[in-house]
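Q: Convert this sequence to structure tokens.
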Amino acid sequence: MSKPDPELQTLIDEFAKQRGLPANAVRNLQEALETSGYLANRMRDEIQTGRLKHLAVSDNPHEGGHFNDKTGTLAISRDVFLPQDAREDRSVVVDRVVAVMGHEIGHGGQAQWRALELKNLQDSVQTAVWTQRDPPNNFMDLTQPVDRYLDFTRNDEAMAEISGWNALADRVRGDRSSVPTQELLAQQEVGTHLVERQPDGKYQLADGIQLSPEGNILIGKPMQQSANLEAVASSHYDLRAEQAKLGKHGDANYRTYYGAYAMGVIASTVNSAERELGRDADNIRLDMASLKLDRTKLERAGLDLDGQSMYFTDTSHGKLRGVSLSHTGRGSGNTPDAQPDNDQQRTTPSANALSPADQQLHQRMLEVGHAHGLNDERSGNLAAQGLLAFKQDKLTGRADDVGIYDGNLMTSYFPFGKDREPNHHTPPLDVEAASKVPSQQTLQEVIKVDQQQQVQKQSMSQQQTQEQSGPTIGPRAM
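A:
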């Protein structure tokens, strides 16, 4: 067992300062990094690339963790740190922490490719809107770009799952060159669906997966032809909904989960293009059968459609059928690890109307929420509420000292230097309550406050001008 190097220790120390951590969270996190060299090396690599910046606990339901590309935050679900039953000892909890962190840091390593695929999806939609709008092409078929995006997410999830497996395999192996297969599978069961316990008590590895002598899952080259990658994707990404437990209600599979996100990207990109065109875009077509997507399941998983409905024509089985998707809200835990560049504008579309100074403060509040493990929607809501509190002088102090303490958003000051315990400005802003107020509603209030303040400034300026020039008593006699 070796101590983490200074770069990793810095993240652990920052993590330890967060309030409301589960019992033994810091101890278990430290042990995870000390006993899995694979995990420590992957995290060190991501720190050096600048992609990994923070560790946090997430309270999002229906997830083991997530990696936020925007803030560089690897968040681990609170439940991961807790025993799942009375039989689980702390060693099993650490096994699960290693597996989850290994999975999420695998997503972190794929960040640039994920961003590229999201951009490709956006660009395909935008190109279709602009180039396929004239007769005879009075529709745009987006089946192919959506299918490509979903294929990428399948490989992305498989690679992340392999990273989680190898991280835990390294911990199980320890100083040994190899480990008995049943011992390895027994410990891996805690963090993956790639292992299944048989009625006779023995463990079975999913079909098609080949382990190296060390117990690792290797992808090999070329990646596109990797038998292991396909086998892992089949056993992980292709899980039934009742096993995957994803989405707003915890009853979506991976394809529906990512499919719902793709629909949101389409809606946002089409709406933006329509504003530029000055009229409605042409009819969207999607072959839902070939995409293996279902309208009802998409809506239940959580659809962020800019608050509107999305209309398209389903071309399944060679027939044309009109379909309407309803905005149901993204929901906690229904955010893939990367978002397209315009995602923040979709979450809080009024943010662009803020002044540059307010936008800067708003961004600072977003970073605080993300670092605390809140998802994008809740961080956006909290950021808007925090901004409004500053505008109304309910939060005072330095904006760059804002943080979350004991579940409240506060600013802090350090009367005896940065090495002392901070004192907090009051009154605080309750994070749980503030993160539930829709950001659009709050930002409208911010804009109203700005307008009122501008009127007051203009009135004061006019009054000062009159006082400086003296009263006006009519024309002077010549």
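The chain has a mean pLDDT of 82.
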